[in-house]
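sanity check both lines:
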Amino acid sequence: MPLFLLLRLHRVQLPVRVTDPEEVRQVSMLVATGLIEAEFAAIRSRARQAVWQVATVTRITEEGFAEIARAGKVPEPAQAFIRFPRGLRLL
């Protein structure tokens, strides 16, 4: 289930590489719903001319953190930026 993968991703340091075919599919679903950002690549294997799909998850979006908080498993993270007058933000 993609939500369980999202919760696992929250507990590891990003970026992280995902190689399991089922998890790569779940990563694509999380990207499609806007919960994470990831890059996809195809890796050719010399064995039987196989092509493997690999995903590198780069970050969890604000929507992803909100979904994690709604799941009730982990607390919502603190804001990742400081807001200054005139709308400036510092990461």
Q: What stands out?
A: The chain is about 35% helix and 30% strand. The mean pLDDT is 81.
